[in-house]
Amino acid sequence: MTFAEKLLRVHPPIEVGGRRIKRYHVTADPAGIEPEVEEAAYAILPKLLPEPDGTPPAAFVVLHRGTDDGAYLNAYSWAWDNALRFRAAAAGQPVLGCPDGDSTHFTVLEENFIGCVWELPPIIHERDAWVRHMLAPDRPDLNAYLADSLPEGTTGGRWQAQSGRCPSGDGSLT
User: Fold this and answer.
1) 134-167: per-residue pLDDT in tens?
2) Domain boundaries, the chain
3) Which of 87, 111, 128, 173 is deepest in the core (most CB within 10 A)?
């Protein structure tokens, strides 16, 4: 199996059901995710969001377009002030319970996956941004949190650039 990083794009936040949502898109296609796939994904998004619990109403999503018929929408919603709730939907993947191979026919997943290797990079950034803007300051700043997104680029290689270290091949870092 040959592995290649994918492209990560950042889109402006949207509001759904009173919740402000940061958006990341992942795809191998430089043209981005097809508008009809994006539209179908965001149409099912309200079903992935939890009821408010007193935490500032914020979330982030990762919309991932596979290189086959698959499309995946992962919704991570802040809850209990410092925890993430997760729900996902997929289209075009009958192995995950999708009714057919149509990339616009999203269904809510019951699986416990939290994301694949291309979908995980925003999670650590969002954790740090939530702490930086919502938990550490004397006064939480939701607008600052919403403005603080992982930079566009590829899905991987970020930790190497940040740390200046590379894997040595023996499991240790040099």
Assistant:
1) 999 999 999 999 999 999 999 987 654 444 443 4
2) 7-163
3) 87
